[in-house]
Amino acid sequence: MATQEQFSAEINQGYTFQGASILIGGGMLDMKSVPNTAIKLPLKTLNRHGLIAGATGTGKTKTIQTLSEKLAENGVSVLMMDIKGDFSGVAEPGVSNQKIIDRTTAIGTMWNPKAFPVELMTISQQDGVRMRATVTEFGPVLMSKILDLNDTQQGVVAMVFKFCDDQQLGLVDLPDFKKVLQFLTNDGKEIFEKEYGAVSPATVGTILRKVVELEQQGADLFFGETSFDVNDLLRKDENGNGYINIVRLTDIQDKPKLFSTFMLSLLAEVYQKFPERGDMDQPELIIFLDEAHLIFDSATDALKDQLESIIKLIRSKGVGIFFCTQNPNDIPESILAQLGLKIQHALRAFTAKDRQAIKLVAQNYPETAYYKVEDLITQLGIGEAFVTALNEKGIPTPLVHTLMTPPQSRMDILNDSEMQTLIQKSALYRKYKETIDPESAYEILGAKIEQAQQQQAEQIAQELQEKEQAKLEKEQAKAEKTTKAGKSTLDKMLNNTVTRQLARTATREVTRGLLGVLKGMFK
Questions:
Q1: For residues 469, 470, 475 and 481, what is the CA-based torsion angle, rounded to 10 degrees?
Q2: Strands 285-289 and 77-82
């Protein structure tokens, strides 16, 4: 059996680094703290991503909070996806109690209350620094993956973006995108087909339905101007501490597509805009994805592939991504294999299936002579975890049962008044507060459609007027013809010889008759 001295020597050797590091706890053996075994993480390899896993109530939230504090103290910016609303207390100093004293004493550290610079952000109805992106920034590839389109539909989306670029039509929000789709199958059909080819109305209809589905999840709040500049995530306070940027997401737990849309857009923009950093002494930005399973639950294979590609590449930009979830099996194996740091809190085994899953989880960690991982993983106390990281040479450190250090900030959330005070004093809040609706595809095409409809209406009115005029003229001509025909017949009758003779005969007979009557009267 390994002795405590052997354990201390191996752990201290495995967790001693030349460069900067952060202390996260002390080593434990046989369920007891071992003095002088400081468990540290080298800043140099934290851009190799990480996993923080464990059942509900085992201390994951406080571990994330502690890591965020340690990173901020070292000038590393943090972006935290706060699904449950647990992290806002990091903006206020904590309050000491006996549990904190006992824990820090066992680890061999001091504890001092401290507040950290915080920005509260939002992509939904909640108040905070508004994070938006334009449809143009999203691009045709990302938009197609989010909408889960097939190859034909992706081609149509690519043509839509090309058409808008050529016609200088800004795609700012989803109404812009929908307007262009409607335009190319109606008023602009001939124009579009002449340059880009025919598009099936059924294909456009399918894309429109998927855009509407995305809107129903609240994406209309995410797409728009002013577009968020990801470089604002790297701000430092006057003391050189990195900001802890907390994205408030408590109202989108039932909208996984919106969450996936936001995360994929954010990661893509970070990768595009951050310069290549190479081998750095410490990361520029660490992103914590709490309840990470929400990203993958409704994600398509194409979306997962895109995430995997970004995760592989983004570390060269000085960015590390930490997935936080209840069970490591929530993360696809292809992504799990990319994670250098693993912090595993306790798992619970209530069924045979749970026990089988725990055996698989235990196989994800380095072999150790000090612990039977698959048994101990169900017995870890609150605030205890198995830890393994990558050292400065990229080699996994020994697996160690760790008593995690407590946060220095408040281990509770801010109240509404404190939140409003923090938001209102934020310079970023004022920068992104106003929603700008520039003249974009919706307005430009709307004006063109309205103009075309007005011209069409005027043309129809003119045609109707011309028809009425022609009809009136026709009726007048007919009437004149009829009148002339009547006069002509009378003239012929009057000028005809037979007619004149008959008239004279009739006159003579009438005269004779009249004279005969008069003659009889005077007899």
A1: 130
A2: parallel
What contacts 448, CB < 8 A, 6 or more positions away? 187, 188
Span 442-499, pLDDT tens digits = 565 565 555 555 665 666 777 777 777 777 877 787 777 776 665 555 455 555 555 5
Closest by Cα among 376, 369, 296, 308 to 344: 376
- Distances 121 to 36, 235, 239, 337 between C-alpha atoms, Å: 40, 14, 22, 31
Longest dimension (CA), the chain: 178
Tokens of 151: 């190859």
Phi, psi dihedral angles at 118 (to 5 degrees):
-135, 140
Kindly state the tokens that stand for 348: 């619970």
With beta carbons less than 8 A apart as the criterion, state whether 422 and 118 touch: yes
Residue with tokens 């808008």: 164
Cis ω on the peptide bond leading into residue 61 (within 30° of 0)? no
Report d(CA 419, CA 430) in Å as an integer.
15
Q: Are 270 and 144 in contact (CB under 8 A)?
A: no
Residues 6+ apart with CB under 8 A from 53: 60, 324, 325, 326, 327, 328, 342, 343, 344, 345, 347, 361
Across 249-368, the runs of DSSP E, i.e. the strands, are 285-289, 319-325, 341-344
pTM: 0.80
Beta-carbon contacts of residue 370 (< 8 Å; ≥ 6 apart):
2, 7, 29, 399, 400, 401
113-155 per-position pLDDT tens digit:
999 999 999 988 889 999 988 888 888 988 888 888 999 999 9
Element (H, E) at 448: helix 441-495
341 is written with which tokens? 């740091």
The rounded distance, in Å, linking the Cα atoms of 453 and 281 is 63
